[in-house]
Amino acid sequence: MLGQSLVLNSITKSVRTWAFSASPVSFYTFRTTLQGKVVDDIDLIPGSLAEIPVEGSLLGPTYICLIGRQFKKTRKGDRFWYEMADGVGAFTRDQLVEIYKSNMARIICDNSDRIENMQKSSFIVKSANNPVLKCEEIPKVDLSKWKAFY
User: Within 13 Å and on the Cβ side, how many CA atoms surround 118?
Assistant: First the structure.
């Protein structure tokens, strides 16, 4: 099995290691197909793929945990990540506030000749929660926060 060749734990051992609030449930339905084997014989990868997806997701709880933990570790371990306060070339708090204002709607407004109105979340269809705004109403990034550095 792939998991064994990668020296991965079984799915039940992995899930218990991450201290989920309850024991794994969905893969216990495999008991009838295991033919005398134990649930601990299920590899992490196929066992995770066989889980019932969490509502609103394509993935089961184990893969959601795996991906979330890996993303967090990747971000925290990247000294060049723009939000790292003590990283190389770190942005100031004021600069980060301005960066967070930036969005695609503002970029489209700034770089298009004829667009005067745009919904704030440009990739989401207009609705009561995402109304169309005049371009002047969409917050701009204040580049003066970088002036002292150049």
Answer: 22
